[in-house]
Amino acid sequence: MKLRTNFVLLIITTMLVSSCSSTKSTEKKIQTAETTYLDAMEAFNDEDYLSAMKYFEVIKLQYPASQFADDAQYYTAEINFKRKEFILAAFNYRLLLTTYRSSEFSKSAYFKQALSYYNLSPNFDRDQKYTYEAIQSLTDFYVAYPNDSLSKEALNLINELKNKLARKVYETGIFYKKQEMPRSAVIYFDQVLEEYFDSIYHESAMFEKIAMLHWMKKFEEVAILSDSYKQMYPRGQFLTQLAELSTGKK
């Protein structure tokens, strides 16, 4: 009987030790995730981005379900952004938005993704893939957060990028004008007038189209478009040149 009692006590003791061990193990894991996060943020704030990145990667790989997982993803993107790794930054901001939809960092990630594309947008005479990406992302942000304080900045950046696209088309028209190919030039000036009517190149494109039509001796079209120009720009910068065209001067 005594032997049996000792055996039962041994089993109970083993179970208690196992239970305590399991609880301590769980607590240790939670504490490890938190400690790793605190170490990561300390390194991030000290601008030791290489160390911070390593800590954030540990959180994402070992503790993907922890409360620090979306923080790790967001600050990974922030490190990319601060290091001007804008392609990676855009990717990691997007990953946060798709993986952690309810994250407190969603709005910031939305805007910073757009800024990443904005920073990738090249000079007007280069391929404008990232310019289009930036415009789309900024537009999406504006639609999602129309009343946010950043929405005004988003609209300003959209206008800036659209002016860049308009300039690319406008300068192509000028190129064909210099090549004495007025019909081709008109195609591009028309594109500015139709697609970028609110750009800073609209007035110039309108006048250049009039000049090309005059060159091609399409005087009726010149007269119609000249009247439209005067109505739209009563104090326009090309009024003197229009007057010269109407009197037959070059």
Describe the model.
This protein is mostly helical. The protein has a domain at about 25-105: Alpha Horseshoe (Serine Threonine Protein Phosphatase 5, Tetratricopeptide repeat). About 80% of the residues lie in helices and about 0% in strands. The protein is built from eleven helices and no strands. The protein has helices at about 1-45, 50-60, 70-80, 85-100, 105-120, 130-145, 150-180, 180-195, 200-215, 220-230, 240-245. α2 (about 50-60) runs antiparallel to α3, α3 (about 70-80) packs antiparallel against α4 (about 85-100) and α7 packs antiparallel against α8. The longest helix is centred in the N-terminal third of the chain and has 44 residues, at about 1-45. It is elongated, with a radius of gyration of 32 Å. The protein starts with a helix and ends with a helix. The model is unreliable at about 5-30 (pLDDT under 50).
